[in-house]
């Protein structure tokens, strides 16, 4: 049962990973509560965005370590993945400047990211790839829900909402790259070892993700004078009630632990088509 055989990657053969070089929000400013005048919703995306520049740099470095030892098609997908993530980094640096321009101090959030990344230094490259593979599943399921349910960004400042929708379709598009790289890098492992390691890593990543983003949101909200049990309840209701991002991605999160899991077991490319035409002129060569 737990042989060393690695299942062939299930990424669709006709999938194209295409970086879209777009700039958002350069000509103006966002409202303080740019998402539907809701401080809770705004804090969720602001806190998440603060993690992206350094986090996506970590993803790039982790996958890049293995690009010289992969089949040609996967090598091309890694190159496109790196292009996409580099542009995401640039755009979230710009978005985070808007957050700072509203008077928010994000230094504590950034220090937390620095601390989490410092833990990875000196670890074997395969460990960092495993963390990236798990976090990329996280971003992919959040991206799926963000595009599938327009309610999440309803009422948002247009440029900010467009940024998140653009980012989401590219996360869906490259959702199999880190996982396929992981499968190739662990091709000599038994299936049991691979499942055990990825399960442990995902559980650790999940705990750190929820704790880190909750602390970040509470920090930003406290700067607006929003503190106490009632605010924490509103956070819980936002995540698990309406619009319920955490509740709605739970099934996709659990699928990660199933035997035979692959991100493209759920082919949701139709969601890319809902948004892609808006950025057609910005499409770059994928490799």
UniProtKB/TrEMBL annotation:
InterPro entries xrefs: UCP07580
Highest taxon, organism lineage: Bacteria
Any Pfam family: Metal_hydrol
Protein name: Metal-dependent hydrolase
Organism: Sphingomonas hankookensis
Source taxonomy: Bacteria, Pseudomonadati, Pseudomonadota, Alphaproteobacteria, Sphingomonadales
